[in-house]
Every structure is written in structure tokens, then in C-alpha cells.
Write a structure and sequence with these properties.
The complex is a heterodimer of chains A (about 220) and B (about 325). With about 220 residues, chain A is an all-alpha fold. Chain A has helices at about 5-15, 15-30, 35-50, 60-70, 80-90, 95-110, 110-120, 130-140, 145-150, 155-160, 165-175, 190-205. Chain A folds into two domains: about 1-125, no CATH class; about 125-220. Chain A is elongated and about 60 Å long. The relative contact order of chain A is 0.09. Classes of the chains: A mainly alpha (about 220), B alpha/beta (about 325). The interface of A and B includes residues 108 and 176 of A.
Chain lengths: ~220, ~325
Amino acid sequence: MMLTTVIAQIIRRNTGDEAMDWLEQKAALIRTEERSLQLNLAFAHTPRYTEKKNLQLEPQEVQQLADQLPGVAADGWTADRLARVWLLMQVPAENKDAYLKKIDGLFAAAEMNEQVALYSALPVFSFPEAWLHRCTEGIRSNIGTVLEAIMYHNPYPAGHLPEPAWNQLVLKAFFTEKDVTRIIGFEERANHQLSETLKDYVQERTAAHRTIHPEIHKLIEQ
Amino acid sequence: MCCNENFEERNRGEKIETTLDLSDISGMRFFDPHVHMTSRTTDDYEAMADAGIVALIEPAFWLGQPRTGLASFTDYYSSLIGWERFRSSQFGIKHYCTIGLNSREANNEPLAEQVMEILPNFIFKEGVVGIGEIGFDDQTAAEEKYFRLQLDLAKEAGLPVQIHTPHRDKKKGTQRSMDIAIEQGLDPYSVIVDHNNEETVKEVLDRGFWAAFTIYPFTKMGNERMVEVVKQYGTERIMVNSAADWGISDPLAIPKTAALMKKSGVSLADIELVTYRNAITAFGQSGQINEKDFDAVKHIDQSLKFESNSVLRGGQQPRIDKNSIIIS
């Protein structure tokens, strides 16, 4: 089963026919329009139809999602977040410039929940290399939910970020007291540079009489 | 530029209602060389004036929401030398600023290029006491590029530099910032290295730079630690600031630290150096700080206007009684 079909089923089962019918109607317009009017309208409008309840996934849905998008765990996402990711998957990618322009336009004017959806969609966007800058910018955000959308169960950073940007993600996770066990590639992408920086960080915390996160030691070379 | 990222630590504390007692330092004058008043309220201005802060420096920084166009930068710099300075004067506090492209937004290279074009229009404005706050955040190549370009600008203009050192990878980031300042030919005595801690201070002082300490709850220095630093390293080229901004921060950090130093037996002369005099000596190298202005601005007339705007609204009285539960 295609990924979009799996996601559409999850949304339909959680939010009901009315919301999913509306999304499909909008998706048809998004797939054919040249400009971004319908995309921009529908993207912003989505939560009014889907509402923001947390999604409940059946075991086989969890499995189907994991088969298609290893690492992604949408269990506990809000309905609008997954619906927005689904809408983003409908944007036609035949023309690269047009595609990038449409998605960039959404990033430029996104409010917090929209940012969460956009960063959650990093692994499903076409032209993965084109989103490196957006991803590193997102890591600079001080908005917790945005950081978590990039850090938690998102395979894009581990798969694509160059080492300095990856190291910033991990450092920022420690600084903002995130649950680092949810970062895909946390141990796999351990590296010498990160280890050195974390050693300094541990010293700094010690000098300031502050606590040290136990997971840090997994990334420090002995 | 600061950010209060440790939410859990912040919320853990017990909430205690007390009245702040600063009588130990009553009559002292303070200078806060790093505070982002744009993000603060008029209550803060009043409390700062009451606690003895006579002058401050507002460094240009990241507003939390990334800017997407040049006009946002132009308006921000203009507000630092315009509306915000006027607002400060209405509370009897002399307002200076430093102008620069902050490290986070240096990563937006197309925009950073445009910002570099307009910086020269602002750095010689009256009351601009340096280039700042500039330096590293993630320590990317783009950050380094615009850091170096702005150091060149400071050198050419003969202005002090206010360096923001990064939260993450602080020790190496601080060392690298100093290396680069020297490579670009700056005299360490014209460079104020900010947000120091116990791990960075020794090298900063040994190499001849100014060492600023930010008293900022949870993420930077606490003031008990600051007292220990002063006891260990003395007061030469050391200054404290609040870096108060849109995070949970404290615009009274300097008077509170002075009070704590007094209680801990630090001499009044030493307290004056780190909470007032050293900052004036360092940023005074711009030729833009005249202490007589601190008194001149004390003659407050809140009915004054800035481009026909006043801080007073609809026949408001200039001062409110904060101890009354009546808000009239």
C-alpha cells in the first residue's frame, strides 16, 4: 500500500469522513494548480476540519507506517499535523523550481503548528538535499515543539545533515533537556568532534554545580 | 542574546513572595552594559531606575522570530537609536546601543549580505558605542564570515566590539572568537567578550580582553558564582550585565549582584568597578559616553514627545504607585 494511502486511512479513521473528504477535495486542486493559492489556503485551514486531537494508531497502521518511513512514529501526533504532512505530499514535484517555491512559501509564513508539520514532513519532501538549510534553521529555533518535530522520530536529520549541523542538533537537545532517546541516529552518528565538545560541556556544568544528563556519556569517547 | 532553554529547571522552584531589599546598595549608581530593553516593559525601566541604574547599553540581537527582509533590520536599528532611546530617557536612564548583525541571522546569507550594506549607515550615529553583539552561535562558516567582516568594520571605525560567546561549545567558541579578533588585527583592549563563565574567564583575561559576565538565571551565571569569580580574579577588566531579554531574565541583576557582593565582603570600590566603571572605560573608547549625560537625563519630563508620540497615554500620570492594588 502506498504511503499516502496508509496516512489517508489513519486520518479518515481518526477524524471522520467529512474531514478526509475535504482534504481529498483540496488535494485534487493542489495537484493541478500552477500557483500556490489552494495549497496555502488548505494548509492553513486544515485544523478547522481535522481538529487537533491526538491520533490513535492501530498496531497494523504503526507497522505499515514504519515499513514505508522507517523511524517515523506518528502515534500521539495531533490530527492536523499528520493531515498537513499528507497535504504536503500532494504537491506535484515534476517541476523542481515550482515545487521548492511552493514549499518555501509555506515555511516563510508558518505559525508554530504549521512549522511543526513542515519539519515533520522533511523525510517525505522531494529533493531532500534542498531542505538542509531549512533543517539547520529549524534547529536554531527556541520553540520547543518545533525542535521536537525535527529531533523526535524524524529520520531526515540523521540521514542528511553534515556533521557540524548534526552536532548542533544533539547539543541543542541536551541544552533544552529533550528526551534524546527519541533522536534517530543518536548513537550511530556519535563522532570525535561531538565527544570533545560534550567533554567541555560536562566540565562547564560541573564547575557551575549543575546536573549532567546521563545519556551524554554514551557519546563521549573513553 | 540569551535564551532560557532550561524550562524544567526554571519551573522546579518553589514560588515565594517577598519584597526585594536593596537598602545595602542604596545611593550607588549602576551601568548595565548589556540589556535588551526592546523586549522589556515600562515596569522594568521604573524598577531599574529605582535600583540605581543610570545608564545602559542595548546590543542589537536576535528577536526570537527570524527576520525575513532588510527593512526589518533597518527599522530595528532605527528603533535602537530612536524610539527605545527616547523611551529610556523617559525613565531617567541614559540609553546607548551597539549595532551589528547577530550570529544566528548571519546564517541567512542572502539577507546577511544586504545587512552588511546598511551597517555603515548606523555605526557613527550618536550613542552607538560599539559593534555588537556579534560572534558565534552554531559556529558555522557563514557566522565566521560575517563575524570577520564586522570586526573589520569595527577596526576601520575605531569602535569597541561586544562579542556574544555561544551557549553550546562555549569554551572552544570563546577561544576561537578571540583568535579571530586578533587575526583581524583588533586590540584585545577594545574587545568585550561576553557571557563568560568559570571555564572561560582565565584565558580571556590572560589574553588582555575584557571579560563580561551575564547574571542570568538557570542558563548562564548565578550571582553567588559571580561573587566567587571576583574574589578569585579581582576586578581588572571584569564587568557584569543582565542581558535581560524576552526570556526569564532579570533587569535588576546588577543591583542584586552588587548587594550580594557587599554582603559577601567585597569592597565598595571593587563593586563600583565591576558594576559601573569598567563598562564605561571599555565602551567609552567609542568616545560616545559622557557621564554628565547620566545626570542630564535625570531631569525627566514624561510629557516630552518622540515624533509626536509620548510614552504617556490618554492623560496618564507619569508615575504609578505599585504598592496600591488600585489601578486608576
